Amino acid sequence: MRKVILSAILMIAISVSFVSCRETAEKAKDATEQAGEAMDEAADAAGDAVEGTMEKAGEAVDGAVDTAGEAVEDVKNAAGEAVDKAKEAGEEVKDATDAAADKLNETAKEVKDVVKD
Q: What is the per-residue pLDDT for 15?
């Protein structure tokens, strides 16, 4: 009878330990799955952050390119205006020089006529 009771106790202990091991294995499996899901979520979040950063960097580059293009266009327009103003000033100087030369010629003719008379 003693052997029967000891055998029964041994069987209960073994069955409890197997059940306990199964629960532990299932818990470990669940924890592994949750860790895998957490890693996937973290990777997705990191990917989203990188993508957002890349988009903002692209927008910044586009803005810089647009600003640089506008600055070049402004410089080009200012240079064109400066050239136009220089041409106008040159023409005014030429006109003034021509007028002064004409007056000088007239004065020289008058002096020559006065000297002849």
A: 64
